[in-house]
């Protein structure tokens, strides 16, 4: 056990009025030190990061919103760990603080990243994270084919199909939490992020196109064949972004939506990128958009870092962040 469990006799509560409503910090699993920061803070310029230490009290973020049934999603965040001794929970979606619906986490020592849906492992991917460095992590899944993908610093690290999750619908009405596994409070504080998080966004769309067979080539009067797809073009970062430190974003909209063998390239078409791809790309390349939350997807953006009310538990603190992706 990493630290003692939560002191039962301590509760500090701060109220913040937002949109004319007074929201109170309470918890059904016991008393917590609650330090609430809502949209009025996260939307203040410049961007805001949340610092978590997991010292003395469990620290995490929980979003206040009704969650619908989920058939596909993409989520992204920036994370810096100051201590990789224990696993880091980067997404916990559960009901009644007991039923695990979706779990995504980074293992102890930063050696692997995981996704689990409905109790079934979707993927486990070996990685190598170092302490005191910022990383951009995204995961996407859809239930039509059980398709999944994971990106680390813009590079796709895992992709495939999880057969057990085909046609699986993630139930509505749960709690979305970042920083702790929301069903493990009785085990102490071993599953918490120790470091900083920024730009957590959760979109109710995947990063994958619905695959359709391409139309046949067009034959002109001169009998020249015009290919259906237009030649590739290159998309680069803004000159102010340090590409050498962060790596590059990769995509190839053929069989898989994204690949790691090519630089930032895509096959142009009249259709826009899938919303999940837009989130992956924009939150990495232009992390400052929307103060950490690109304005895409409309109501499909279930959680926006800068616009969705959130409760910050356990004394976690807010700090201004630089508009320099990966060097906040």
TrEMBL record:
PROSITE patterns tied to this protein: PROKAR_LIPOPROTEIN (PS51257), PTX_2 (PS51828)
Cofactor annotation: Ca(2+)
Gene Ontology molecular functions: metal ion binding
Keyword terms, alphabetized: Calcium, Disulfide bond, Glycoprotein, Metal-binding
Stretches assigned to the Pentraxin (PTX) domain: 43-243
SMART domains linked to this entry: PTX
InterPro entries xrefs: ConA-like_dom_sf, Neuronal_Pentraxin_Related, PTX_dom
Classification via PANTHER family: B6, PENTRAXIN
Protein name from the UniProt record: Pentraxin (PTX) domain-containing protein
């Amino acid at each position: 056990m990493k630290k003692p469990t939560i002191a039962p006799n301590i509760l500090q509560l701060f109220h913040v009025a937002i949109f004319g409503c007074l929201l109170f910090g309470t918890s059904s699993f016991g008393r917590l030190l609650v330090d609430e920061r809502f949209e009025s803070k996260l939307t203040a310029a410049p961007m805001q990061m949340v610092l978590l230490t997991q010292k003395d009290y469990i620290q995490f973020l929980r979003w206040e919103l009704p969650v619908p049934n989920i058939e596909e999603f993409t989520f992204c965040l920036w994370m810096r760990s100051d201590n990789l001794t224990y696993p880091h929970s980067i997404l916990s979606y559960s009901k009644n603080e007991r039923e695990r619906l979706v779990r995504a986490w980074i293992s102890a020592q930063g050696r692997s990243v995981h996704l689990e849906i409905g109790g079934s492992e979707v993927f486990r991917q070996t990685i190598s994270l170092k302490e005191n460095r910022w990383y951009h992590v995204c995961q996407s899944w859809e239930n039509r084919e059980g398709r999944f993908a994971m990106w680390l610093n813009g590079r796709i690290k895992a992709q495939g199909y999880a057969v057990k999750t085909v046609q699986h619908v993630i139930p509505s009405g749960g709690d979305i939490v970042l920083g702790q596994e929301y069903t493990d409070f009785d085990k102490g504080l071993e599953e918490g992020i120790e470091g900083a998080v920024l730009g957590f966004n959760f979109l109710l769309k995947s990063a994958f196109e619905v695959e359709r067979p391409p139309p046949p080539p067009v034959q002109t009067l001169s009998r020249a064949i015009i290919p259906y797809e237009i030649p590739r073009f290159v998309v680069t970062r803004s000159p102010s972004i340090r590409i050498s430190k962060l790596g590059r974003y990769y995509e190839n909209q053929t069989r898989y939506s994204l690949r790691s063998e090519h630089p930032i390239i895509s096959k142009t078409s009249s259709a826009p990128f899938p919303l999940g791809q837009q989130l992956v790309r924009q939150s990495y390349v232009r992390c400052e958009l929307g103060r950490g939350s690109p304005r895409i997807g409309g109501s499909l953006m279930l959680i926006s870092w800068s616009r969705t009310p959130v409760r910050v538990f356990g004394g976690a603190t807010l700090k201004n962040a630089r508009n320099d992706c990966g060097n906040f």
